[in-house]
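SEVERITY: medium
COMPONENT: batch folding queue
REPORTER: lab tech (J.R.)

DESCRIPTION
The queue accepted two submissions in a row. Attaching both inputs and their returned structure tokens so the on-call engineer can compare them side by side.

ATTACHMENT 1
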Amino acid sequence: MRHVIALDVGGTGMKAALVGLDGTLLYEERRVTGRPYGPDAVVESILGFARELRAHGRERFGTAAEAAGVALPGIVDSEGGIAVYAADLGRRDVPLRELLSRELGGVPVALGHDVRAGGLAEGRIGAGRSSGRFLFVSLGTGIAAAIGIDDRIEAGARGCAGEIGHIVVRPGGPACGCGGRGCLEALASAAAIGRAWATASGDPTADAAACARAVEAGDEVANGVWRAAVDALADGLVTAVTVLDPRTLVIGGGLAEAGDTLFTPLRGAVAERVTFQKLPAIVPAALGDTAGYLGAGLLALDLLAAAAAVRPPLRGRRT
């Protein structure tokens, strides 16, 4: 059976699948990214996992994968095939596409940013399907977004479109990992909420999920921490809505698992802030943590479709 490899590389784990050319999910697997951690270990774990997936496809389906798609966190030069800074690679300019293609028998390989890959999947087969224009926002350790336009994701001129986590919503506010202050990510990510709740509760092990549970239990201090984060998030989202005018906001990532504890106040806070803008639907993502590798699979299928489109038509024999 003809198929492609789909691989989603995270900071600590990898999720992968073999996907049929009709989009059917044929096989799923997970691995640790690289242990002991370090640049060489991470790269080798990615290549090793890809080799295993290729071997499994040959054994089970009688043919090797025809292409591969890989989703990576960080900064990815998709056109150049370079992982500029991703996960625990810990270095710049890793020629990951070339390395993977060599390991996989020379097949074409697509690289993509993990959130944009997840947005691609949500747009084509998930919560953004049929929206036409949507914004997929991932709320996890950090905050990033994918700008959906019909069946594609806008990467930007340099591959950095959608980094709404670094919109400044509180000038002079807490320091952000990007070097700025008052960024949305420093105030409303799961990591930021976890830090704020650990301080407010006096429990250094507390995280965002614990804060959400305390909110649901009626804890007023937790509610104050949660509300401050929701307000910051709403400010960032309204900025994005003003610039992009999406029909739908698809919210994913670990923080979205809080369900109505997040979505009810967030919808209200966004509605309070819009003036002339059209209020988009705000919906939870549908694909969970499978979105990254499903999007990677779509990138690989798109490679094959593009190659088929430029092939010259077959000519009949001359008589």
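ATTACHMENT 2
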Amino acid sequence: MQVEVITPDDKVFTGTAQGVKVPGSKGSFEVLQGHSALVSSLEKGKVRIRNGNQDIFVQIDGGVIEVQNNQVVILAEKATVA
């Protein structure tokens, strides 16, 4: 699936992944290939992007995640690759 992590100033990450774990406002959850469409608020914390044998971590200061048609877009207030 295609993943983007975007802030108001920059595109922090763009690429493919097998899974994305995010700090949801009601608890962390993971999005996998074929996940149903959703929009959810995110808390401050780490996003884990699983890409094969490699994990990429992005620290966010809250935001929103949108999942639709195997595309994940994370709109974060602030984000840095950890």
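NOTES FROM REPORTER
Residues 2-81 form a domain with the ATP Synthase; domain 1 fold (CATH 2.60.15.10).
No errors were logged for either attachment.
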